[in-house]
Design a protein that fits this description.
disordered N terminus, 446 residues, mainly alpha, globular
Amino acid sequence: MTPTPPQPGPSLNHRILQLALPSLGALVAQPLFVLVDSAFVARVGTVSLAGLGLASVVLTTVVALSVFLAYSTTASVARAFGAGRIRDAVARGVDACWLGLGIGAGALLVLLATGDPLLRLFGPGPDVLREARVYLLISAVGLPAMLATQAATGLVRGLQKATIPLIVAGIGAALNVPLNALLIFGLNLGIVGSAIGTVLCEWGMAFALLTVVARGARRHGVGLRPKLAAISSAGRESVPMFVRAVSLRVVALVGTWAATGLGEVQLAAHQLALTVFSLFALALDALAIAGQALTGSYLGAADAISVRQVTSRLITWGVAAGCITSVLLLGLAYAAPSLFSPDPAVQENLQVALWVLALCQPVAGYVFVLDGVLMGAGDAPYLARAVLVTMMAVLPFAIAVGFVQPPGLWGLAAVWITCTLLFLVGRAVSLWLRVRGDAWMRLGDA
């Protein structure tokens, strides 16, 4: 990890691809963990799959609420990197890694103490609750590793070294498949084996990335001991991103609550659709990561013209990528359901959810790339306010779906229309209003 500040030479398209393509591989590898778990556990039974889905919502909520560890770290490191202050950039990343380990350890203790009451809030049946409880309590052991991995990933991406997370995530995802097969079916551990296999892979990935960070820190004379003042400062700077993450997860949780009320079949289909959504959303988010890194480094170098060029180019690429993923999802809506579940009712509900998801993709491409640009610019306070307002506008419709519980396939379709399509449209409007002006661009390492 020996970075050099950005130099003139490669075209803008080339620089975007250098960051986006490796990030795409690394991002897609993460939901593949859940996808593999879902595919294996679906063969154990629909009740186990529903339990996995419920526990995964709680776990992914903790991870999503901590996504600032990656996003804020990428932006702050990239800005210092663009200004030529490499040692400061690495030091910010090391502080973020300690913050990730600390938050992960705290989240582990909280879930061990409150996991069962949290799961009961969704109102599952006793069989689903039992499976969800087992998966949640075991998988929580991997949270410190997952959050440290987020922070370390933000550091190396901010230094424009996107291939490192790709290699680590790729190896972890590849090992997760045979490990889960062995534990779930070979040792007949069922959902317990799924949780154990994923935890082992998560800690392996964290160890690999933190080793890379430690070597880079020593090379640039950065101490590895935790500095409480610097860690606290990093935490305070991340508060707006935390508020944004909370707003996003509230909408997701309300959607899961509504799907739970529709029944076990709908909840199982909802879990599978969420897994597919994560896969395609993070694929689009690869462009957003390129936006974070490039915007941060160009603003650090006080190059406003390049920031505008990056923004315009990424909007075009984001919408185009969304159109492509929309077509892929339409095909997947007919091919995937039978692969993910042997239950015909689950297959039908999953297909409807994927149809709605396909409609969302062009809007999602636009939203994700502008999110990345504004994160790279350090405009987190606006992002927090905008998402909070959009959440408040969408929630009444989502809650109404949960109480009305539309019959048949309309129920899950309504959940996805309100919590995904309408929510994305609202976010797109707020981002468009922001990037029209220049208030979000702060030049220099400020």
